[in-house]
Amino acid sequence: MSLIRYNNPWNLLNTLQRDLYNPDYRLNDDDASAATASWAPSVDISEDEKSFTLRADIPGVDPKDIDISMEKGVLTIKGERQSENVEEKENYRRVERQSGQFYRRFTLPDSADADKIQAKSVHGVLTVTIPKQEVAVSRRIEVQH
After folding, report:
1. 36-84+99-131: CATH architecture
2. Which helix H or strand E contains 117, and what residues bound it?
3. Which helix (H) or strand (E) holds 92?
């Protein structure tokens, strides 16, 4: 009996959708690791009145191995999950957990305050909080005559 690797049919659609909506995801001349990312963590993005919040599932990744940067309105999260020792016995091997480099980029709106971004990792969930900048309140100016 041989083991057959199960490939999720939705992965192809997810890859197509990612490439359509973020064409520079894999092609970035400034960072060669974009083209060599082994996997991409799932990310939830939310917004409230004061901030944007990104939550990424990255279990098994040491927070020291995560690099978060912000440049020209683009937030980049990259890192690496080390592979574990794999036990092989009598012609079988089973590895389902992804390992290797990951890379995600997010274009932030102008209202994001890049100087006050905070990140923390708890139980394999990376939370990045991006506060919004204070918006000047518009006021009516009277024209004197």
Report:
1. Sandwich (2.60)
2. none
3. none
Please give the DSSP secondary-structure letter assigned to residue 23.
T
Contact (Cβ atoms closer than 8 angstroms) between residue 38 and residue 102 = yes
Per-residue pLDDT of the chain (145 residues; tens, 9 = 90+): 555 555 667 777 777 777 776 655 554 444 444 445 678 889 999 999 999 999 999 988 889 989 999 998 899 999 988 776 666 677 767 766 777 888 899 999 888 998 999 999 999 999 999 999 887 566 788 898 8
Would you give the DSSP letter of residue 39? B
Nearest C-alpha neighbor of 35 from the set 44, 26, 43: 26
Q: How many helices (H) and strands (E) does the chain have?
A: 1, 7
Phi then psi for residue 17, to 5 deg, are -65, -45
Cβ atoms < 10 Å from Cβ of 110: 7
Report the C-alpha dihedral over residues 107, 111, 113, 118, rounded to 10 degrees. -60
How big is the CA angle at 111 (ends 126 and 118), to the nearest 5 degrees? 25
CA-to-CA separations, 22 to 15, 37, 75, in angstroms, rounded: 10, 15, 13
